[in-house]
Fold:
Amino acid sequence: MSAVLYAATTNQGKLRDFSTAAQAFGIEIEPLTILATIPAPEETGATFKENAILKAIYYSRFAPSEIVLADDSGLEVEALNGAPGVRSARFASDAGLADSPDAPLDNTDVWNNIVLLQHLAGVPPEKRKARYYCVLAAARNEEILHIASGSVEGIILEAPRGTGGFGYDPLFYLPELDRTMAEIDLETKLSLSHRGRALQALLKLLSPNPKPH
Structure:
C-alpha cells in the first residue's frame, strides 16, 4: 500500500481526523488537489454506504493508480427515526434555511443545529439518543477496494455547549465524559471520532500489519 492516500475532501476537520488516525499506520493523508476544479458528484445514495461508494469511485478517476478515500458521515437521532442521516449537512437547507449568497460567513452549522433543536422540541432526554456514523470507502481506478465504518454514541442536548469542533458537536453530549464533542480537547475527540474509527478499520483491511507508533 502506498504511504500516501488521497482523501476526497477539503474539510479541515475531516482531514485532521483522518490524518491523526493514519499516523499509527505510517500513512499520510492528503487532500485531492483537483477537488476545486471538478464538479462534485450528485449524492443520490439512500445510505451513507451508497454515497461513500459513489464518491470514491468518482474521485478515483482523477488520481489514476492512487488509492482515494471518500466518506459519507452524519448524525442519526433515534427519536427522528435516524434523521438527519445522509442529509446531515443539508438539514437546514432542506427546511429552507440558508445564508444569503453575499453572507460574510458560512453559518450552515448554526442553521443545522437550530433545525435539529426544533425537531426535538419537547422530546425528553432519555429519548434524545443519537450517534455519529461514518462509512469510508477506498477506491483505485474506479474499483472499490474496501469499505469500513465507525460510530460514537451520545445524546442531543436542548442547548449547545462548547466552542470547539464543528457540525453538531455543540449539541452532541457524551455521558461518560459529561462533555459535548465541542467541549473536549482535540486529543480526546480524535480518540472518539467516528471518522477516525472508520479509517483505522479501513487501514487494517488495506494493510494488516500497521507500523508501530
Observations:
- The chain has a mean pLDDT of 91.
- The chain is about 30% helix and 25% strand.
